[in-house]
Amino acid sequence: MQRIVTLLEALGLLACLALLLHAFYAVGLQAGTPVLLWCALALPLGYYCADLLSGLIHWVCDSFGDAHTPLWGPLLVGPFRRHHQTPADITQISLTENLGASAIAGAAVIWLWAPQALGLSSAAELLGRYTGLWCIAFAVLSNRFHRWAHLPLARRPRWMYLLQQWRILLRPQDHALHHRKPHRVNYCILSGWANPLCNRVPWARVEGWLARVGIPTNFD
């Protein structure tokens, strides 16, 4: 069974990469304008959005369902819950296990969205399209950056250490705050840029509202 899961994760990575490259290229062909400029402008916007998205997904996986929840339980909820118990294990897993579930989700989103098939009528639309593509790309990579935040200092190359200290990558000392009980702050795992916003959300109140409509929390 594990070999089948590993194969699916590897195929998901390849599919996501192929769909992303095709979408970036096809949107650029459609635009007929200086696309590299718009693509570059969209990059930090997509990076921030992906960090925010990683935090929202992290909150959902920490707060709802369990490892046996159909479909997304084994792929997302189970790994996040186990990670709280043994944080260092993430540094021992393969690339496919680290990114496979995110890549499968990313491939599905690109396939359903099909940005290259939609018409472009303005520069703002082009910027939005590229922002969305960068957001998907970085969201897929978020768990890799998360893994790097758990690497021992001796295993981190200098470029990684510097990017973490410059807050371009997730800083280990910031992410460590999430691993203190009750695990209610610093949910974002890509760069941490969106943590100030996420930390202002009254999560307990949101969970209370959801519980009233029949969606209870479930903390392991």
Structure notes:
- The chain has 220 residues and is mostly helical.
- It has one domain.
- Helices cover 66% and strands 0% of the residues.
- It is built from nine helices and no strands.
- It has helices at 2-31, 35-63, 72-85, 95-113, 123-150, 158-165, 172-175, 195-198, 203-212.
- Helix 1 crosses helix 4, helix 1 packs antiparallel against helix 5 and helix 4 runs antiparallel to helix 5.
- The chain starts with a helix and ends in an 8-residue tail after the last helix.
- The mean pLDDT is 90.
Keywords:
220 residues, mainly alpha, 66% helix, globular
Net shape: globular
DSSP summary: helix tally: 9
- Low-pLDDT runs of 5+ residues are none
Rg of Cα set: 18 Å
Query: Helix share of residues?
Result: 55-70%
Strand segment tally: 0
- Strand coverage percent: under 5%
The helix-and-strand class reads mainly alpha
Q: Determine the mean pLDDT.
A: 90
Order of helices and strands: HHHHHHHHH
What is the first-to-last residue Cα distance? 25 Å
Largest sheet: none
Please, how many domains?
1
